[in-house]
Every structure is written in structure tokens, then in C-alpha cells.
Amino acid sequence: MAPGLDGDVAMAGLFCQEVLRENPRAISVLWFGDPDLTMHNAQIGSPAHMAALTRIDALVGDVAATIDAERAKGDDILFMVGSDHGHETVGYGINVAGWLDENGFGKLRETGQMSFATQGTAALLYWRS
Predict the structure, then answer these.
(1) How much of the chain exceeds pLDDT 70, in percent?
(2) Domain chopping of the chain, boundaries
């Protein structure tokens, strides 16, 4: 499947047909790539973001409707929906290496006595004395 909304649509259809209707399993997971993929390139609340949310919401509705139909036939299905993380809009960023260099820590960084690891909008500084 191709990444993005079209791939999510195709996967939802296959999941409903092949996994829920034709060959139910004890545990099944359907993982959508969107809205995450869209939000790496579009701001929160942008038309692209809202379109991705709307489309994924409809796909979750399709899966829920399929599950409801299978439950009506007597299947006992636990249905959970979650998200692996969110996104946020950042108005200002700091180049951590540049900030360290500008504030007198460049030599320590260059020699490996100070290092940093970034994750999203956070950074951890490590110091070895």
C-alpha cells in the first residue's frame, strides 16, 4: 500500500473485508499513517490537516460500522481507537549546536565533553566532567 490517505483508505477496506468479515482473528491491529503523515507537512488546523482528520474519522466510522455488523451476528469484539502521539505548532526554534557554540560551550561539544540529543521540541544536554 502507498503511504498517505489513499493507502489508509485501501487498508481500511481490506481490514474490514479480510480481517473482520472473512477471517477474524483473536487480535487485529489497523494502523493509519494519517493524519500523522499529513501533519509533518501541514500546520495544525490547515485545510490539509482538517481534510486528513475528516477522512480518517470517516474510515474509523467505517471500521466501527463493520464491527457493529459483526457484533450483531454474535461476535464479541473489543474495539479500541488510539493515537501514538500528537503534533504541535512551534513558532520559534533554536539550533542547539549553534546556541552551545555561541554561549561558550563549543570546545566542550567538539571534544565530546558535552553532547545533546533532540526529540521533537525538546533537547537533553549531557555533560562529562
Answers:
(1) 98
(2) 5-72, 96-127
- Separation CA 73–CA 68 (nearest Å): 9
Distance CA 92, CA 51 (A): 26
- Give me the pLDDT at residue 1, please: 63
Amino acid symbol at 66: T
Peptide bond into 35 cis (omega under 30): yes
Q: How far is CA 93 from the centre of its chain?
A: 21
- Quick one: which of 45, 28, 49 has its CA closest to 37? 49
3-state secondary structure the chain: CCCCHHHHHHHHHHHHHHHHHHCCCCCCCCCCCCCHHHHCCCCCCCHHHHHHHHHHHHHHHHHHHHHHHHHHCCCCCCCCCCCCCCCCCCCCCCCHHHHHHHCCCHHHHHHCCEEEEEECCEEEEEECC
Put simply, whether the predicted model's pTM sits higher than 0.85 gets the answer no
80-112 residue pLDDT tens: 998 877 777 777 788 899 999 999 999 999 999
